[in-house]
Amino acid sequence: MTLAMTLGMSIGVRRTLWMMAGELVGVALVAIAAVMGVASVMLNYPDAFAILKWLGGAYLAYIGVNMWRSKGKMAIIEGQQTDKSISNIALVSQGFVTAIANPKGWAFMISLLPPFISVDKAVAPQLFWLLAIIMLTESVSMLAYASGGKSLRMFLSRGDNIKLMNRIAGSLMIGVGFWLALG
Asked: Where are the transmembrane segments (predicted)?
């Protein structure tokens, strides 16, 4: 959610939708893995998961440092509405990596979803409806956060607060990076 808010602030809600698409695919894969038991494989090979977490966290922190310094593709530059130079693929990838490298997401899905699956009934329809509810909730939440980031940007852009805005967005991104790596 913080990533959606930060991107909403720095690149706008419309561009943030690309990150949201990647995030939703990642969340769906995590949910399916939790239901199908593949999550136990991740638990048996925690080193691979830890490496993925650290790489994802380092990448987000790097982006945050550049934003904080008012540099990089996601930094807000005075007079610029959104940066078109960051590719949609990069935004999708960022969302996907954030979702699959999030240990709290895995823990949530592993603990939440299996009790809702009845072994006496077909798994596919049950999984479909669980995923539909999760995807809808996740989409609405990320959109609300991205819109809040855009509103915060409009509020902070009055006057000469561009540097402050970059530092807030960058600090949030660095925080997400550390949270991802250490969580």
From this structure: 21-43, 49-68, 127-144, 164-182
Task: Please check whether residue 181 is in contact with residue 53, taking contact to mean a CB–CB distance below 8 angstroms.
Answer: yes
Ranges of the chain whose pLDDT falls below 50: 79-82
- This prediction has a pTM of 0.65
Alpha helical stretches, state H, the chain: 2-10, 13-36, 39-44, 46-68, 88-100, 103-112, 123-156, 162-182
- The Cα–Cα gap between 142 and 161 comes to 25
pLDDT for residue 28: 94
Query: What is d(CA 16, CA 10) in angstroms, rounded to the nearest whole number?
Result: 9
pLDDT, one tens digit per residue, over 61-72 is 887 787 777 665
Supply the DSSP symbol for 28: H
**Collapsing DSSP states into helix, strand and coil, what is residue 116?**
helix
Phi, psi of 70 (to 5 degrees): 60, 40
Nearest alpha carbon to residue 11 among 165, 141, 144: 165
CA distance 99 to 106: 9
pLDDT of residue 160: 62
